[in-house]
Write a structure and sequence with these properties.
The protein is α+β, with helices and mostly antiparallel strands. It is built from two helices and two strands, in the order ββαα.
Length: 78
């Protein structure tokens, strides 16, 4: 059985954004507690900055710089 963790958002509509899928309830519970801890989740601004940095460094790893990471495992972002 799979267990899911969601983040409930209010903007722009009330949405349940999936954060992860886990094989056991214990794993899902640990993840959810870590996300709720202070500093446990990146702000939207930091998420965007990180996404831009990863895209800049890893976009061409699949042979085409098109703004899409087709093979994210081929990227060794640091």
């Amino acid at each position: 059985m799979a267990y899911f963790v969601y983040k409930l958002t209010e903007r722009p509509l009330r949405l349940a954004e999936p954060l992860g899928e886990f094989a056991s309830y214990a794993e899902a519970s640990r993840f959810a507690k870590a996300q709720r801890a202070p500093g446990g989740m990146l702000s939207e601004t930091k998420q965007k900055l990180l996404a831009q940095a990863v895209l800049k460094q890893c976009d061409a790893a699949d042979g085409l710089a098109d703004g899409i990471l087709s093979h994210p495992r081929a990227c060794s972002f640091d």
